[in-house]
Structure formats: structure tokens, C-alpha cells
Design goal:
Layout lengths: L4 H4 L6 H44 L16 H8 L1 H32 L6 H9 L6 H11 L7 H10 L10 H28 L4 H9 L4 H12 L1 H16 L3 H6 L11 H11 L3 H33 L1
């Protein structure tokens, strides 16, 4: 009995269908890219073009009041490096952003663990911790400027004198104490909000993990470092990003609390940009400071991504 060759040889796939599938795939890719066009246009017009214009104005003596601007090269950058107020604003802004991020993270996670436990009046205690995040930073700065007043009539100085007989402390008139006071007030205002963020992630952790850990004999410390902290890594990434971005653009709290003083100890980038650019009509100099600040923000942002990714790999 003979067998036909056509019955043995495999049937070739239809060329028409493959061509149609390839054409459909390219059409889908084109449609997907078309949806990205509005975002790309917005990114170009609201970020790339202003960034390029800012860099151009930073190389001129543009005053903001006249369209005549002379090209002066990197003279504005050299002036910034010689200006103590500019350097102080740059250093304190970075110090405030990094300091509040580290302190809030170290305090908010243990606080969230405690507030996540069942106890009497838990919701009321949570609301007390969350309340400092409700008023604006400007109002908190005004309130704490009275509490931390270096005068004997200040709240803290009055309590120290009445209870312990300690003389007045220059909370806001000493460089180091003023910086520490601004950072600590910023931490106090944000730790409750970020604790609530961590509580939301804690409630998403299955309770079976802790039950198995207890059966294996793990104590509370081992459960925290072995289960809680690794599973809170996504929350730490979000929290640290929010803290860094808000810390780098801080203005209201130092301005109302210390007005940038004493001297330029608590001067911020935003205050320096407003003072130099708008107040003194030195838009070229302010643009140079903005460019330098953008570079610093990029460095801090990439460092934050590296640290959080390394933490994620460590606990994964």
C-alpha cells in the first residue's frame, strides 16, 4: 500500500494569516504609542523647554524686567559658589530633605507597628498622631516660632525655667539649634501621616505569616525584621520619595519659623530663588541656582533609587 507524500509532509502555515497577525501587531503598537503622545508633548513643553530656557537665562544677566540680556557665560555659577547665602540655602535644603526622610522613616515604622495593634482608644490615638499633618506648614511654623522663642517668654523656655531652673535656650537664634529645630518640627508634622501610610501596608500582610513564625519560635524582634520590614519595602519606597520631594521644595516651615535665620542658617533654595529672582531682579542668577539645584535633586533622586533597590534586593 503506498502512502502519498502530501499526507506525510507537514502542512505549511498560511502566509496570509501570519501577515495579518503581523500587521495587527504593528497597528496595536502604533495605537499604544499614539496614546503616549499627549504625555510626551506635555513633558516637552512643561519640562524640557523650560529647563532649556532656564539654562540659557543662567548664562545671561537677565533681570526679568527687560528683554535685553547679555551673555556672560558661567559668571552666575561662579557668583553662587562665592555667595554664602546661596551655598547655605543649597546645603540646608539637602540637609532638611535627607534628615526628615531618615528620621520620619525610622520613627514612622515602629509607630505604625504599635498603632496597628488592638488597644483601647486606638482610633483616637491614631487621629492625634495624624492631626499635625492637617494644618499647613506655614501655620505650624508660626505656632512653633512662639513655642521655641529664644526669649524668656517662650513656651519651652518658660517650662525649663519654672520646672528645672534652666536659663533661656536660644532655640532659634543659634545656628545649630535653629537647623535642628526646623528639622524636628518637620519630622513631628509628618511622622503621623507616614505612619498611617505604613499602617495601610501592615494591614495587607497576611496574619498567617506571623502565626507560622510563632510556631517556629520566632520572637517579636525576629518577626519584625524577618516579616514586617521586608514586606514594608514598597511602602518605604513611596514614603521616602514623598519625603524627599517635599523636603527639597520646602519653603513655608523655615520661612515662618526662622525667616531663614539666624543669618542664612535655615535659608532654603526656594526662598533664595524668590529673594534673588523676584525680589532683587536677578533672574539670571536665580536660574543658575535652579540649574544647580536640579542637578542636586537628580543626584539625590538616583541615590534614593539605588538605596531602595538595594534594600529591596536585600529583603527579597
Amino acid at each position: 500500500m503506498s502512502t502519498r507524500v502530501s499526507e506525510i509532509a507537514p502542512t505549511a502555515p498560511p502566509v496570509v494569516r501570519r501577515r495579518r497577525s503581523i500587521e495587527g501587531g504593528w497597528k496595536q503598537i502604533t495605537i499604544n504609542r499614539a496614546f503616549l503622545l499627549p504625555a510626551i508633548v506635555v513633558f516637552i513643553f512643561l519640562f524640557i523647554i523650560p529647563l532649556g530656557q532656564g539654562f540659557y537665562w543662567s548664562l545671561t544677566d537677565f533681570t526679568g524686567y527687560s528683554t535685553d540680556a547679555n551673555f556672560i557665560g558661567f559668571a552666575n555659577y561662579a557668583e553662587i559658589l562665592r555667595d554664602p547665602s546661596m551655598l547655605s540655602s543649597l546645603s540646608f535644603t539637602v540637609l532638611f530633605a535627607v534628615g526628615t526622610t531618615v528620621l520620619v522613616t525610622c520613627l514612622a515604622i515602629p509607630l505604625a507597628v504599635q498603632l496597628n495593634k488592638a488597644f483601647f482608644g486606638r482610633n483616637f490615638v491614631r487621629s492625634l498622631w495624624f492631626f499635625p499633618a492637617v494644618p499647613s506648614m506655614a501655620i505650624l511654623g508660626l505656632v512653633w516660632s512662639y513655642i521655641l522663642s529664644p526669649l524668656p517668654s517662650g513656651v519651652f523656655n518658660t517650662l525649663l525655667n519654672d520646672w528645672f531652673g534652666i536659663d533661656s535656650v536660644s532655640w532659634l537664634s543659634d545656628n545649630s539649634l535653629a537647623r535642628a529645630s526646623v528639622i524636628l518640627v518637620g519630622v513631628w508634622a509628618q511622622v503621623g501621616w507616614h505612619a498611617v501610610l505604613y499602617i495601610a501596608y501592615l494591614q495587607a500582610i497576611p496574619s498567617e505569616y506571623y502565626e507560622v513564625a510563632k510556631i517556629d519560635g520566632a520572637n517579636a524582634r525576629q518577626q519584625f525584621f524577618g516579616i514586617t520590614l521586608p514586606l514594608l519595602t514598597p511602602a518605604m519606597v513611596i514614603s521616602s520619595f514623598l519625603l524627599l520631594t517635599s523636603g527639597l521644595k520646602v519653603f513655608e516651615l523655615p520661612y515662618t519659623l526662622t525667616n531663614g535665620g539666624p543669618g542664612f542658617a535655615t535659608y532654603t533654595i526656594t526662598q533664595s530663588l524668590i529673594t534673588s529672582g523676584v525680589g532683587q531682579g536677578r533672574y539670571g542668577l536665580a536660574s543658575a541656582l535652579a540649574v544647580m539645584f536640579t542637578i542636586v535633586v537628580a543626584i539625590v533622586g538616583f541615590s534614593q533609587l539605588k538605596i531602595t533597590s538595594s534594600i529591596g534586593r536585600r529583603f527579597s
